[in-house]
């Protein structure tokens, strides 16, 4: 990202005001709408266990308070609705709630507000079911009938419940911050009227849903004060122009055409939020001609990642320099993938050392997923740098993998479930060796998340050495905001913190 040229001398404040565009001054005036306004695509749903997009997560994290939250400085989990989350063996966890917790309708937040909500997520097959059953691996969560219970959830009293996992996981407290694990009031859990609840959700967080109309979701503090309104604005250019003109306080997207001017347009009022979603090229283990690590290294060096992210991906992604997503702060290291740096000459030499690669090479990806442009760009780079016949191959990728008809590198997208290095690496085990798998298991079972960082780093090193997957890029978010708003903070797992937005004095 380039910065606009700064003037060498400070300009007096009065002169700055005289020269400022009238549109910019509007941001400082008292607008007709006194609410703090945020632009974003409309959420797919506000049903907490079914939240599946960035806007839904952003709103959910303001309307509900989960058992834990991420520390804004370190990213480590800290208690929120929970007074404590403890375990002697990282497998059986005891959750103790803070006393006096209430939903916005005045009903109490109890142990069953959580355990029954999680059971509903599993029974209904909502988006959060994967985290409960496959990531946390709560005992019995993978096979819950419509009227069944979850063996791994045991209520001790109104403020205490126990969660039993299938295997030790020191990242469980961090995982509990995800919307999949949020509570729901007893009334909706008994009625099963999920549609009505999704339209007018009742949470236990710092903001409540006060109104929904005309593409706007208005949030207010239960105690009163300045409202925050999330406006449905899916177009990044529209958001940017509205924020620049003082008609919107915070834009959650920046169009590719305005990246160069963003610093000049908003000066210190813009933020790039590193993401937790990664894109890789993986290699099918059953294809012998692609088994050479040297060949894979050659392909990695042949890919010019910045050219793709700045080009067809519209600057909404950052080139990868590691296997671990950059939005994971605990234990994060930059620059781990030296072979992710584009070097055509070294790539050609490595391909020669590997014995070359004859015949067509298909780059497989899921048809209709939106990957067409970047796969075509990568195929073109491989043809240019390595002189191999690389061809995009759209398909029903899951079926092709199950049938083992995939005969070339294939696109993989993963999203870390919680802020720890091992959360980025665990989804890659299908493509790694047993040594890396053992290290990931050590990282998950370590006495503390901090103790799990070293085996996770060793696993990353092992995977980067053999390159069963090539890291390509990670998604990131952009925020720009008007001069009248303060408290703009965000991270990869929570998104923009709506409850921290305030106006300038």
Automatic annotation (TrEMBL):
Superkingdom assignment: Bacteria
Signal peptide: 1-26
Keyword entries, A-Z: Signal
Domain called Solute-binding protein family: residue spans: 77-421
CDD domains, per the entry: PBP2_NikA_DppA_OppA_like
InterPro entries tied to this protein: Peptide/Ni-bd (IPR030678), SBP_5 (IPR039424), SBP_5_dom (IPR000914)
Full protein name: ABC transporter substrate-binding protein
């Amino acid at each position: 990202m380039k910065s606009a040229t700064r003037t060498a001398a400070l300009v007096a404040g009065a002169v700055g005001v005289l020269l400022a565009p009238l549109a910019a001054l509007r941001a400082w005036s008292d607008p007709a709408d006194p609410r703090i306004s945020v632009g974003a695509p409309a959420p797919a749903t506000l049903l907490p266990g079914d939240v599946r997009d960035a806007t839904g997560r952003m709103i959910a994290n303001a309307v509900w308070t989960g058992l834990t939250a991420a520390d804004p400085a370190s990213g480590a989990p800290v208690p929120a609705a929970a007074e404590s989350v403890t375990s002697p063996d990282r497998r059986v966890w005891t959750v103790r709630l803070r006393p006096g917790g209430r939903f916005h309708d005045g009903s109490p937040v109890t142990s069953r507000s959580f355990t029954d909500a999680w059971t509903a997520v599993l029974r209904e097959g909502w988006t959060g079911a994967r985290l409960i059953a496959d990531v946390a691996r709560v005992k019995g969560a993978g096979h819950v009938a419509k009227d069944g219970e979850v063996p791994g959830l045991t209520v001790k009293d109104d403020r205490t419940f126990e969660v039993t996992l299938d295997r030790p996981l020191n990242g469980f407290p961090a995982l509990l911050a995800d919307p999949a694990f949020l509570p729901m009031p007893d009334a909706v859990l008994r009625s099963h009227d999920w549609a009505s609840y999704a339209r007018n959700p009742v949470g236990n967080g710092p903001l409540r849903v006060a109104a929904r109309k005309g593409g706007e979701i208005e949030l207010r503090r239960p105690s009163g004060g300045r409202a925050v309104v999330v406006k449905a604005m899916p177009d990044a250019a529209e958001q940017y122009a509205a924020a620049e003109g003082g008609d919107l306080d915070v834009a959650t997207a920046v169009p590719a055409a305005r990246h160069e001017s963003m610093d000049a347009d908003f000066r210190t009022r813009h933020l790039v939020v590193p993401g937790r979603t990664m894109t890789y090229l993986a290699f099918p283990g059953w294809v012998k001609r692609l088994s050479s690590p040297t060949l894979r290294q050659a392909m990695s060096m042949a890919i010019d990642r910045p050219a793709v992210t700045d080009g067809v991906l519209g600057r909404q992604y950052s080139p990868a320099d590691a296997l671990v997503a950059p939005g994971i702060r605990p234990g994060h290291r930059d620059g781990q993938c030296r072979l992710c740096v584009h070097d055509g000459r070294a790539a050609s030499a490595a391909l020669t050392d590997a014995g070359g690669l004859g015949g067509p090479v298909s780059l497989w990806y899921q048809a209709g997923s939106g990957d067409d442009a970047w796969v075509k760009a990568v195929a073109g780079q491989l043809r240019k740098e390595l002189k191999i016949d690389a061809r995009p191959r759209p398909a029903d990728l899951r079926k092709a993998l199950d049938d083992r008809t995939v005969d070339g590198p294939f696109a993989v997208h993963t999203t870390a479930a919680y802020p720890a290095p091992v959360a980025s690496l665990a989804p890659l085990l299908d493509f790694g060796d047993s040594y890396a798998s053992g290290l990931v298991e050590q990282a998950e079972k370590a006495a503390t998340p901090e103790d799990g960082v070293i085996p996770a780093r060793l696993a990353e090193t092992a995977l980067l050495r053999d390159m069963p997957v090539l890291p390509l890029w990670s998604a990131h978010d952009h925020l720009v905001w008007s001069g009248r708003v303060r408290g703009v903070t965000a991270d990869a797992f929570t998104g923009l913190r709506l409850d921290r937005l305030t106006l300038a004095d």
